[in-house]
Design a protein that fits this description.
Helices cover about 35% and strands about 25% of the residues. By secondary structure, the protein is an alpha+beta fold.
Length: about 300
């Protein structure tokens, strides 16, 4: 099956992109990597009137390490210190492959560097983009979960202006987000983690390498000078309609984080998810695996923070 006929435009500026999207609304689709859009068009699940190729818009492909006053840091190199002061900004057109190869990203946000190699295959990561994965919002995808764990903010542009939406409000349901028909995701802003002793954890179970996760988990933990938990965010994905920010992880704050406590939080977090049976796994299986993975990533994150 082939896609239905469509018009094609290739703007060179974000303003041009926004003008086309404002004119066509839902009838326009953004083409970046095309790893999800093109198959859906070929199966006629989506039928855009116009395809807006944003690959020539250089401003959407920036990677910027930020200082504490919110300004880009030149030549950040491999040092993680500037990122802890100010965070990281990723243009929506940044390729997924950059998450595992760009030392600025790896030093600032090692969670993304660890998750990246299991996003599809090398060929898909070479074309797939950060923004494309987030807007597509597959509940089993790695990047939406990681951005939720990192408390990222998404900056959306339209002809009406610019607005920001935090990750915990962006994912609304199964492949549904807060983005409006005339908006484009332009940039993702990842804040610096609180404190100097920060660790992360990531794990997933998939049928084969490159498949979407049956269940996955990622976590970020920071410790204070006494070794007690200062900050903890745990996200489970692949088990529900959206990546799930576990409420139970907040109970770790102020406590010493050990394996037994992580196991308790993992079980409580898995119980928060509304899992369902499907062709690939039962709800009970996903809940059991989610509990185990949650405990694992929290334990790993705490151990890395302790060693930082």
């Amino acid at each position: 099956m082939r896609a239905v006929a469509f018009d094609y435009v290739a703007p060179r500026s974000l303003g041009e992109v926004l003008a086309v999207v404002a004119r066509f609304g839902d009838d326009a689709k953004i083409l970046a990597g095309g790893q999800s859009l093109v198959p859906m068009m070929n199966m006629r699940l989506v039928r855009p009137a116009v395809l807006v190729d944003v690959n020539r818009v250089a401003s959407l492909a920036r990677v910027e390490v930020m200082s504490s006053d919110g300004q880009p840091v030149d030549d950040a190199g491999s040092s993680a210190a500037p990122c802890r002061a100010g965070g990281l900004r990723l243009g929506a057109l940044v390729r997924q492959q950059a998450l595992e190869r760009d030392q600025r990203i790896a030093s600032c946000v090692p969670l993304l560097a660890e998750a990246a190699p299991v996003i599809g295959h090398l060929q898909t990561r070479a074309r797939g983009t950060v923004g494309g994965s987030l807007v597509h919002a597959d509940p089993a995808a790695e990047l939406p979960a990681c951005m939720l764990a990192l408390d990222a903010t998404f900056h959306l542009e339209s002809a009406r202006g610019r607005r920001s939406c935090r990750a915990d409000a962006f994912f609304r349901g199964l492949m549904a987000t807060d983005i409006a028909a005339d908006e484009v995701l332009a940039e993702v802003e990842i804040p610096a983690m609180p404190g100097e002793r920060v660790g992360h954890g990531f794990a997933e179970v998939a049928r084969r390498h490159g498949d979407f996760a049956l269940v996955g988990a990622c976590a970020v933990v920071s410790l204070d000078s006494a070794g007690a938990c200062r900050h903890a965010r745990l996200v489970l994905f692949g088990a529900g309609d959206v990546p799930h920010l576990a409420r139970a992880a907040a109970g770790l704050r102020g406590e010493r984080v050990d394996a037994a406590r992580c196991a308790d939080v993992g079980r409580a977090s898995a119980d928060e998810i509304d899992t369902r049976d499907d062709l690939h796994a039962t709800a009970g299986y996903r809940r059991r695996v989610a509990a185990g993975l949650a405990a694992r990533v929290l334990t790993t994150a705490a151990a890395r923070a302790e060693a930082a």
